[in-house]
Amino acid sequence: MFSLINLHRRAAAAVVIALALGSSAFAADKTLYDRLGGKPALEAVVGELWAITSKDKRINKYFANTKPEAFAGQLVDFLCEASGGPCKYKGQDMVAAHTGMHLKNKDFDALAQNVVKALDKFKVPAREKKEVMTMLGSLRSSIVNH
Ligand code: HEM
């Protein structure tokens, strides 16, 4: 019965250690949303993204008629939900939101570069930065060439 008893002992020990450390010790248990710092962090990053993008001559023509507060609110809700946060995004899906803009890969890349700059300004760690960029990258085909 060596193995079963040992297995039970190990499992019990793991539970004790987990309780002693507290669940926050396990970064992998936390959503990307939590690890980024929740809604205040997303608001800060989106605010910076707007500051950079509205001055970016490569792509700011697309946002000529955009109301910054309303757009930022939608983007925060979208990112919050997509990163496992408690928000409910109520805007259009990504294809519908960008249809008619005829965005190209270079436009997407320009915005993605601005996202990296905004994440860097707030010193978002490499792991979270990679997860955000992977998540945004997965949306490329919904956003480009529509
Ligand atoms: C992964 C990248 C992107 C994400 C997650 C994203 C997300 C969003 C969201 C959530 C909205 C709001 C839709 C609504 O209110 O129903 C939106 C609208 C918009 N997006 Fe994007 N977008 C991305 C890429 C881009 C790019 C590359 C451009 C142009 C260079 C762009 C230009 C716009 C514009 C002009 C609007 C309309 C803003 C307005 O309400 O005036 N987006 N996007």
From TrEMBL:
From the Swiss-Prot or TrEMBL record, give the protein name.
Answer: Group 1 truncated hemoglobin
Cell inner membrane as a keyword of this entry, yes or no, is: no
Q: Which family does it belong to?
A: Belongs to the truncated hemoglobin family. Group I subfamily.
For whether the record's keyword set contains Iron, the answer is yes
Q: Which InterPro entries match?
A: Globin-like_sf, Globin/Proto, Globin_bac-like_CS, Hemoglobin_trunc, Hemoglobin_trunc_I
Which SUPFAM superfamilies does the record cross-reference, listed alphabetically?
Globin-like (SSF46458)
Q: Which cofactor does it need?
A: heme
What residue range is the signal peptide?
A: 1-27
